[in-house]
Amino acid sequence: MADDPQNTPGTSPEENQGATGTATGTEHQGEANKGAEGDQANAVKTAETARAAAEKRASEAEQEAARLRRSNAATKGTDLDALRAEVRAEFTEALVRAELRAAAAGRLRDPADALALVDVAALVGEGGDIDTAAVAAAVDQLVTAKPYLAAESTDPAPVWGDVGAGQREPAEPEPASPYERLRRVKRNS
Fold it and tell me: Which pLDDT band holds residue 1 (cuts at 50, 70, 90)?
């Protein structure tokens, strides 16, 4: 039995059947089961391949991002000054708009009209400061050019006279007792 190829140690029945060429029905069923396991093995291998490819793409994307960060850092020195100037201009414009709105608050019905009709850029003085005299002059010019935008006069409301409504001061002090009230009525009649 030692010379029997089917009983040699280290060989499985599947290997023995390939060697001799004889296979039984149970051995074919084992191959069918091995085929299902093979499909699973292929699926696992495909998933591992896809994962490796995704990791490689992620690594390349991180390297590209780092390269772009370095290149942006190299050019920030010149762009920083331009960025500061842009922010300063926007801030100055916002301050001029607020100053114009405040100057027009008592003079115009709607202070937003001044923002719509006055050139804000012309009100900035030298060095980015607000020219308050120019703001006041712009509001004055707007009131004279378009008087219908001016606020109503601040005069007190016209007096309409007394129409008898509201609480009044009594002509005589209130009597202390009901008997005193009756005495007053008898006196007046």
Answer: very low
Integer Cα distance of 2 and 121 in angstroms: 106
In order of 54, 165, 167, 185, the CA distances from 161 in angstroms are 89, 11, 15, 31
Q: Per the structure block, which two tokens stand in for 12?
A: 């499985």
- The mean pLDDT value for 2-20 works out to 49
Q: 130-166 burial, b for 16+ CB within 10 Å, e for fewer?
A: bbeebbbebbeebbeeeeebeeeeeeeeeeeeeeeee
Amino acid 49 reads T
The CA distances from residue 102 to 47, 94, 111, 115, 145, in Å, are 68, 12, 8, 11, 19
Mean pLDDT, the chain, rounded, equals 76
Q: How far is CA 147 from CA 18, 107, 164, in A?
A: 109, 10, 38
| Structure token pair of residue 181 | 């009230």
Distance CA 28, CA 24 (A): 7
Which pTM value belongs to this model?
A: 0.41
